[in-house]
Prior knowledge:
The chain is mainly beta and 143 residues long. The protein has helices at 2-6, 137-140; strands at residues 10-11, 18-20, 31-37, 44-50, 55-58, 61-64, 74-80, 90-95, 98-99, 103-104, 110-112, 115-117, 125-126.
Amino acid sequence: MVLAALVPSATAGFLASCQLCVPEFDFGGHTLVADCTANDPGNSVVSSLDLNYCIGNDNGILKAMDSGFFADSCNACYSTPTADGDNKAYMHCICNDQDQNPVDTHDIVDNFDGRLGCFGGKWLGDDGACDDWYLPWYLVGIP
């Protein structure tokens, strides 16, 4: 009982309560940054999450994996836009020298009282405002 009180409650699927700050995955293709609604009504938090703690490369297949560190064997990761409201955030990578089927980060990442996390935690910290994360497309290589 006490342990449950120490772990923030999670909202399954982060897109239901978070707005991505950078629509395309950035900083090496594996960091999510979002402004998420906190449990306290009217409050939100901008946080970041290194997806290495949430996704792994299992013989060339990207999937949910606690501390999977997919970026050790995958590269050229990018996101694909989806229709508004469909609650999908697909990430594609080249793993084992082949383009992989995308993994839906929405199914893996949760909102823990305003902070992005997976497998019960893992967020990197509070990160100011979404505007702090904006980079022009020519600096991040987004066509």
